[in-house]
């Protein structure tokens, strides 16, 4: 049974991953390390794990794998240290805030002969898996274009600090859609043009809260994407992932989070989504655990994280230059 630890609860997704680890009979959630001890101790108590205050002692534990949920700019250092300690790594997205760091993370894990996965739970959302099956089968023919969104509420905190996050809503919400489209179509992105800005939170943010991207994939497929923190604080979840595929033989509309019941709770004083379908985070964590057991790459690899990082970094280059930017040669 693989023994797993979580490195940092800075990212809110760590709490979902902790619950998923405890729900999996084939995994044991052993330990937590966090550079903010109060937060780490509270998380360890919540999930019945042991808090370890010293990183070197945490990495000396008999762990088979770690899930890294730190601030984005710390991913490279933590992944490298975990790999050197012989631990498999599942790293929160974006894999890195720049292409050089993403390459270094992949090389560190290859050198240590441990697996590296990128946390792209949308690959385990049932509506997207059905859409992929139907498109891959050829039912809809060639994909000519796609119109995509990933809109959520402002997470605040370090997400809004470029020095820790690497960027705002464009950084936070583009990578999911980029990965889903690569996974479904099997094609890479080649060009991107981006307009972005601080439109909705000028008094509280210094980074972009809305990004509008126009992209081109291999073969000429055109993709539009809106990434934003435009939803109110009462929005039920971290984002909406919707895609309209315009294809040779028809149009396919997909809402990744449509397996839900809308609840308006006076107790919570906000809208809530109660899922009646599968749990994408559980699918993600289960795949990572089984990858360790089976000694195979996770479903979304470090290379997949690198490719999404390349697109996002190019989008910010386009924003800065005002020009279309090519993505890799």
In terms of topology, how is this protein built?
Layout lengths: L2 E5 L5 H11 L4 E6 L3 H11 L2 E2 L3 H6 L4 E4 L6 H10 L3 E5 L6 H14 L3 E4 L6 H11 L6 E11 L8 H4 L3 H17 L3 E9 L12 E8 L4 E10 L8 E8 L2 E6 L4 E6 L4 E6 L4 H15 L7 H20 L3 E2 L3
Parallel strand pairs: 1-2, 1-4, 2-3, 4-5, 5-6, 7-10
Antiparallel strand pairs: 7-11, 8-9, 8-15, 9-10, 11-12, 13-14
Helix pairs in contact: 1-9, 4-5, 5-10, 6-8, 8-10
Between the first and last Cα atoms, what is the distance in angstroms?
43 Å
Q: How many individual domains? A: 2
Query: In terms of structural class, how would the helical and strand content be classed?
Result: alpha/beta
Q: Which percent range describes the beta-strand content?
A: 25-35%
Radius of gyration: 19 Å
Shape, principal axes of CA atoms: globular
Low-confidence stretches: none
In helices, the fraction of residues equals: 25-40%
CATH architectural type of the largest domain: 2-Layer Sandwich
Note the total helix count.
10
* SSE series: EHEHEHEHEHEHEHHEEEEEEEHHE
The largest sheet, given as strand count, sense and whether it forms a barrel, is: 7 strands, mixed
Lateral strand order in the biggest sheet: 12-11-7-10-9-8-15
CATH class assignment of the largest domain? Alpha Beta
CATH superfamily of the largest domain: Dihydrodipicolinate Reductase, domain 2
- CATH-defined fold name of the largest domain: Dihydrodipicolinate Reductase, domain 2
Number of strands: 15
Which whole number gives the mean pLDDT?
A: 95
């Amino acid at each position: 049974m693989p023994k797993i630890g979580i490195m940092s609860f800075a990212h809110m997704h760590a709490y979902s991953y902790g619950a998923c680890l405890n729900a999996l009979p084939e995994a044991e959630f052993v330990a937590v390390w966090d550079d903010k001890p109060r937060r780490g101790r509270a998380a360890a108590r919540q999930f019945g794990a042991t808090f370890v205050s010293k990183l070197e002692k945490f990495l000396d534990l008999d762990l088979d794998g770690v899930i890294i949920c730190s601030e984005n700019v710390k991913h490279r250092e933590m992944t490298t240290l975990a790999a050197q300690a012989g631990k498999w790594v599942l790293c929160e997205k974006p894999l890195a805030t720049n292409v050089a760091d993403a390459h270094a993370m992949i090389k560190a894990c290859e050198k240590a002969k441990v697996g590296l996965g990128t946390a792209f739970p949308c690959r385990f959302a049932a509506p997207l898996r059905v859409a992929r099956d139907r498109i891959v089968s050829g039912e809809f023919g060639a994909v000519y274009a796609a119109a995509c969104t990933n809109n959520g509420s402002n997470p605040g905190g370090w997400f809004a600090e470029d020095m820790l996050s690497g960027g705002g809503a464009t950084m936070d919400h583009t990578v999911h859609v980029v990965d889903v489209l690569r996974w479904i179509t099997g094609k890479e992105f080649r060009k991107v043009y981006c307009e972005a800005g601080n439109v909705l939170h000028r008094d509280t943010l210094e980074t972009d809260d809305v990004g509008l991207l126009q992209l081109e994939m291999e073969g000429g497929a055109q993709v539009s994407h809106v990434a934003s923190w435009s939803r109110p604080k009462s929005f039920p979840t971290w984002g909406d992932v919707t895609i309209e595929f315009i294809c040779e033989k028809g149009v396919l509309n997909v809402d990744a989070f449509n397996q839900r019941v809308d609840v308006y709770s006076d107790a919570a004083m906000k809208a809530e989504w109660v899922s009646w379908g599968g749990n994408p985070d559980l699918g993600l964590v289960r795949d990572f655990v089984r990858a360790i057991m089976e000694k195979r790459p996770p479903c979304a690899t470090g290379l997949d994280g690198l490719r999404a990082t390349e697109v996002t970094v190019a989008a910010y280059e386009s924003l800065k230059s005002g020009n279309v930017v090519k993505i890799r040669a």
